[in-house]
From TrEMBL:
Organism: Caballeronia pedi
Cofactor entry: Fe cation
Annotated keywords: 2Fe-2S, Iron, Iron-sulfur, Metal-binding, Oxidoreductase
Identification of the protein by name: Rieske (2Fe-2S) domain-containing protein
Family: Belongs to the bacterial ring-hydroxylating dioxygenase alpha subunit family.
Domain Rieske per the UniProt entry, residue ranges: 47-151
Region described as Disordered: 1-20
Phylogenetic classification of the source organism: Bacteria, Pseudomonadati, Pseudomonadota, Betaproteobacteria, Burkholderiales
Pfam families reported for this sequence: Rieske, Ring_hydroxyl_A
Database matches in InterPro entries: Rieske_2Fe-2S, Rieske_2Fe-2S_sf, Ring_hydroxy_dOase_asu_C_dom, Rng_hydr_dOase-A
A GO MF term: 2 iron, 2 sulfur cluster binding
Length: 418
């Protein structure tokens, strides 16, 4: 009996037929998962939180990423710093995952004590020759763009984070996202591979049938449609859609908002991202069931409510910023078939719950959408692990960004010699 040859991760992705899905083993195998975490979550820039996670000096947020763990803290000078969650003595974790408030960072094992700037301030019984200046906490490369806290665990982080920063900083500026607070946050564990979570987020082929709450405000045509065999009525609707988009973008541009699409998604990209100022349906104000603003206290010093949705993708996150609130979601892979999805709803720091906004109005669209996406990812993951699964063909009209993600994934594996 001949032995079954197990293909490597590189062989698997190179076997993918263009315009088709990935082989099922890339979603289910433990060795593939571990390599994905190493490359895509520890060598690339990833989103790990927002500035409102640590609103005051001494506030701490701890995030685990595979076997690595980081501490995000706001120091006494209001700066946000990030460190490896490893004591410089014998390696104990300083903080458990989650949020807390501290005066200093104290190791629970032997009480080595660190200032919020990472410097070691106290280490008992070490003798007079001990030099604490060599034992500061290990810093993590960090970039803050708007409210988004991006980190990279590699020694040499990808330089093209500057493209994302240069593109998004002026787009986020009118919303003053650092002057926000978290009105609501959620955590969902989806029983599916992280790549399937991202693939699902990058197409709206499924939106009309599965996301009734989202499509009250969101226009799925923004992410493609098949122009063939349309009825006269459908053609008129498409023409009206294009006309409205053009009018909205012209209006935004005249008021100083940058609305044009920017894509850095191809095989040459390392820090992959896409942004666009999307038109919102109905009243055009916010991603709510009514399409009106959920918070009467607008972000920043905005006067206009009808600013659509400033949308940002990265390879582990998606963001929607509107005049009244923002929704920021990011993922962390936990296992080949488990992915943590964290979402945060941000409002103006001075907005008052029950006065300026109601939690249900603010959150019901994306709470429902996240639950629906969880189900879609899970049934897809199960199907890709079925012996009958064969990668299917993508729609060239509505799944082009899924194809693009697949090519980028292959290019990044190749760049690291996989």
């Amino acid at each position: 009996m001949s032995e079954v040859q197990i293909r490597t991760q590189g062989e698997l992705i190179r076997s993918r037929e263009p315009g088709h899905g990935m082989p099922g083993e890339l979603f289910g195998r433990q060795d593939v998962f571990e390599k994905d975490v190493e490359i895509f979550f520890q060598k690339h820039w990833i989103l790990v939180g927002v500035t409102a996670d640590v609103p005051e000096p001494g506030d701490v947020s701890t995030v685990d990423i595979g076997r690595a763990s980081i501490i995000m803290v706001r120091d006494d000078d209001e700066n946000i710093r990030t460190y490896r969650n490893v004591c410089r003595h014998r390696g104990a974790r300083l903080k458990e995952p989650g949020k807390s408030t501290v005066g200093m960072l104290v190791c629970p094992y032997h009480q080595w004590t660190y200032d919020l700037d990472g410097s070691l301030r106290h280490a008992a019984h070490m003798g007079r020759d001990f030099d604490p200046t060599c034992r500061s906490l290990i810093p993590v490369h960090t970039r803050i763009v708007g409210t988004h806290v991006f980190v990279c665990l590699a020694d040499e982080p990808p330089a093209d984070i500057s493209k994302l920063e240069a593109t998004m900083a002026p787009r986020f500026a009118p919303y003053d996202l650092r002057n926000t607070k978290i009105a609501f946050e959620s955590e969902i564990i989806e029983n599916g591979n992280w790549k399937l979570v991202i693939e699902n987020n990058r197409e709206c082929y499924h939106c009309a049938a599965t996301h009734p709450e989202l499509t009250a405000s969101f226009l799925p045509e923004d992410f493609g449609f098949c122009p063939e065999n349309l009825t006269d009525e459908a053609l008129r609707e498409i023409a009206a859609y294009k006309e409205r988009n053009a009018a909205c973008q012209a209006s935004w541009e005249s008021d100083g908002f940058t609305s044009a699409t920017v894509e850095w998604l191809g095989e040459d990209a390392v820090t992959q991202f896409r942004t666009q100022q999307l038109v919102i349906a109905g009243h055009g104000e916010s991603q709510t069931i009514s399409t009106k603003a959920a918070s009467q206290k607008l972000l920043g010093n905005l006067q206009r409510r009808d600013l659509g949705d400033t949308h940002l993708w990265t390879h582990n996150s998606w963001t929607h910023v509107m005049s009244d609130h923002a929704v920021v979601s990011y993922i962390i892979p936990l296992a080949p078939d488990k992915t943590l999805v964290r979402s945060k709803w941000l409002v103006h720091a001075d907005a008052v719950e029950g006065v300026d906004y109601q939690i249900q109005d603010l959150t019901e669209v994306w709470v429902a959408t996240n639950a629906q996406d969880k189900h879609l990812v899970e049934i897809t993951h199960e199907g890709t692990q079925d012996p009958a699964y064969r990668p299917g063909v993508f729609s060239p009209f509505t799944e082009s960004y899924v194809e693009q993600f697949s090519r980028w994934y292959a290019a990044r594996l190749d760049a690291y010699g996989v």
